[in-house]
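In this notebook, the sequence line spells out the residues, with the fold written below as integer tokens. This is how one looks.
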Amino acid sequence: MSYTYTAVVPLNWEDTVAKTRAVLATQGFGILSEIDVRATFAAKLGADAAEALGDYVILGACNPVLASKALAAEPEMGALLPCNVVVRRGTGATATTVDAIDPQTMVQLSATPAVRDVADDAGTRLRAAIAELAGEG
């Protein structure tokens, strides 16, 4: 089983990050956290490591209604939240890749029907966002 939904976006880095934020918002997701992995690599591992990675940001996307349902069903689900969405572009690449976690990974860890319902809903929303980024939506 693949654990992400992926789109290759023929836009530059900045435009892809902005568009990713926008399409996630249309699906009810806000961004709770943002990790600039390239900047972290530069600070902790040096410029060469950051350059080898390229542009790479992890957006912690959260739909509060879905998160509330998941946490009410199983408080431990907080360890799997928010839904991570990666926007990455390797050095010299001509397109930017967006990967979103497949929420069905939560279902593999929980037999609770409410968690399954949340994962189904979140998956539908994330697939729609990825399809729009890929130009299919």
About this structure: The first strand starts at residue 4 and ends at 9. The mean pLDDT is 94. The helical segments are 13-26, 37-45, 47-53, 64-73, 104-109, 113-133.
